[in-house]
Structures are given as structure tokens and as C-alpha cells.
Amino acid sequence: MQKTVLGIFAHPDDAEMLCAGTLSLLKGVGWSVHIATLSPGDKGTAEYSKEEISSIRRKEARSAASLIDATYHCLEFEDAYILYDRESINRTTALVRKVKPAVVFTLPPSDYMVDHEMTSLLVRTACFCTGVKNMDIGEPPFEPVPWLYYSDPVEGKDTFGNHVKPSFYVDISSEMEIKTKMLECHESQRNWLREHHKMDNYIISMQKHSKERGDEAGTAYAEGFIQHLGHGYPQDNILREILPEYIMVNQP
Ligand SMILES: [Zn+2]
Predict the structure, then answer these.
(1) CA-CA 20 to 30 A from 248: which of 10, 57, 79, 89?
(2) What are the CB-based long-range contacts (under 8 Å, 24+) for 58-61?
(3) From ligand 1's centre to the CA of 13, what distance in Å?
(4) What's the gap in Å between 190 CA and the centre of ligand 1?
């Protein structure tokens, strides 16, 4: 198995909010880490042009990734226009084929923003199509289909406001410092939200959610995940082998 993990999310800062602790743990056991976003976050501003904020946020995402020696990729779609269509499926699948991950993390199918949900669908299809021969997208097919995991939705709530119960937790207590530093790299978002909320909501909300998951898992801080277990995808939870001391499984 190639020890490569890909966290592929919609916007710069999603990975840092939702799975950076787990990515950092994987880095610690010798995995090479890739972080990708479908958009450069071109609408996350009240002051800059699309081009300016995209360039700022690509740099912020690259700085955050560099803290765990991860490689950053941007697929250059636009915020609010992440679509489940032919071009997007091809571009997403081509990235997955290029990186050749054994493990993939992405956003869950039900989340607060449609960009997140479309990302989830695109990554699901991209993983399914890694080995499909008659899909000529400039990158050769590979097998097997990666292990696919969905992060928590933002605030742990689905589209209807229901709290989502993860199927397992990763204990990230040892990684909270680096996770916080990674999120702090997204200065433009932190400042923007600080102006909106008049407090440092950005960092606080990530820490609060990680602590809530930690309380549920019986540790200080945790990240919650649900594994994609549809036909054609790996059925065992490989993370239990890779990070045995850090995985807590939720009893049904
Ligand atoms: Zn997002």
C-alpha cells in the first residue's frame, strides 16, 4: 500500500477545521499528505477582488499545508459554483489519479453549503473511477479504490440541523497545537469573521467542536468521521491499523 493520504475539500480552511489533526497524525507515522481544495475561496471576502482573495487564500492554504509538510493543490473552481458535472468529475478524478492516495478524506454528503455537498459527490465518484479504463482524462487509472472517509459537517449538523453521529473518532489531543496553527494561517478568513462577530470565532469554533467530539470519545480533543461503505469501496477501517491507539469506534 502506498502511504499517501489526500484530504480533498471545497474551500481553503475546510481541511484545517475538520481533519487536520488526523492528517498530522498520519504524517507522524510516515505518510505523505496532500491537501486539495476545489476552489481557491474566491468569495470569502468583503474587501478584495476575486483574483486578489484567491491569490491570498492559495498562499494561506499552502502555508497551512506546509506545517505538516503536505502538498497543496487547487482545482480552481469557483465558490458557489462547485457543480456535479462532467468537467468537474474529470478534473477531480484526474487529481485523485495523480496523487494515487490509499486513503481519502472529504466533506460529508449532507452539510450546510451545497459546495460542500457537491464536493462530497465529486470525490465519491472520483474514488470510484480511479481504476476505470475508458475514462480518458490525462492521468492513467490505478487500483484499488481508496478508503474513503467523510469528515463532520460544519458544527456537526446536517442540512436539517440534526446532529450527526460519527461512526468513529480519532483522538487528536496531541495534535491540537498544530491544528490550531494550521487554521491560524488563514488570516484573511479569521480577520473577516472577527469583524463580523466581534470575536475570534474562527479559532474558537474549531476548538469547541474538537472538544465536543473529544468529550464524546472520552478524550480531550477528537475528530469524527463516517466511512463510505457502499458497494465497490473498501469495507474494513484501515485507520484502525494505521493509527491503532488513536481510533475510538462508536457503538451503534
Ligand atoms: Zn467550506
Answers:
(1) 10
(2) 58/12, 60/12, 60/13, 60/185, 60/186, 60/187, 60/188, 60/189, 61/12, 61/13, 61/35, 61/37, 61/185, 61/186
(3) 7
(4) 14
